[in-house]
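Methods — Computational structure assignment.
A single polypeptide chain was analysed. Its primary sequence is given first, followed by the predicted tertiary structure written as structure tokens.
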Amino acid sequence: MTIDDALQKACSIAGPGARAALLELVARARSRGVPIRCTPHGYMKHVFTFAPQGQRHPAIAVNRQWLTVYQGPRANDQRVQAVADIPPDFFEQAGYALYEDPPTELVPVQLEDPLRELADRLHLPVDFLQNIETLLEEKKQVIFQGPPGTGKTYVAQALARHLAECEDRCQLVQFHPSYSYEDFVRGYRATLLDNRQPGFVLKDGPFMRIAEKARRDPDAKCFLIIDEINRGNLAKVFGELYFLLEYRETPMDLMYHKDGEPSFTMPDNLYIIGTMNTADRSIALVDLALRRRFAFVDFSMTKEPVKGLLRCWLAANDLSNMNWVADVLDRANAKLHDHHAAIGPSYFMRTDLDEAAVVRIWNHNVLPYVEEHLFGEHDRLAEFELDKLRRTGGPDSRKRDDDWGTQQVTDTEMGTDGDRADGANAGGAGADSGGADASS
């Protein structure tokens, strides 16, 4: 394996700060002519030594959130979590001051960003995914919020699988009004006992199963994806996890504590991604206790990258002749006057899209959704006829579209996700090769 291949693998497991520091160290080493070797040791898979063969220092070990720096046999190990943390004498202490007059400009390390391939597949900017990755490293739990059909659940699953590097380390659950703590964390289940008599046994729910998986493999990233997180009674479902989401290292006995079991702590390598649909007003409010424990990412039709997602997807799939659909979508959303209930692009993100398919989707998926939103205003449905929206294209309508596009999401108490976990797989956020899941 070449050094660049080893660096690529190390960068894929390191968080943003550690990754930047690693690439900076490599650039400095190459600018000084310092040899670099990949030297895995024991359970440490990603170790790099900046010295000729036979010497062991200086070296760094790459972890998820930091680099461990070893400058010499008598030097104290240091943690580096950002470029600013790199010891200024990292090379000098090992004798590399002999390299006089190093180049003033660092040699750039040409590595593909680990998220680039995923960003291209989702038709989203790589910096959008990088920002989410950073939020996950900082907060450990995030919520994607926006109207249905914007790809929240699809992106959540794709990003989780990419960062976990293994689908087995990703757990998907969906909350609903009947979901309880006993379903989510741990509770008693009816079963047949060994004597073939009915009884109850204490069983772990999906949260405890993924937490145990994270505990067994502390160097791996594990993800819990909670679809439609605010459709459940959150205080009832989370219980003492409300506390543990914020104080992960504090031991706490669970409500259903097993005899002899140690107190529970939240694994540091367990990440949570929730989704929320902002269109459903009956469930849109989330209590402040939850909001304080999660970072929120908007999937809004008024802002990029979701605003231009359909046009990007059509162009990438050689369907530029169908760009008029994106124009119609913008005009319909402008007429709704509610960015929380906007019509998402995933209805139309299907590779067999043609005019006949658009008519079917509009009449049987979009119009029923609009009718529900305009309950009590039945006379307004005529404004949303497909032919009428397609013919509308004058400067006045364009101005209304632009005005709608500049709206800002100010109601921070809104949010939820109707993205279906099964929707979307044609290569875009929320797309589906056989027809987009319009509820997403």
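Note: The longest helix spans residues 355-373.
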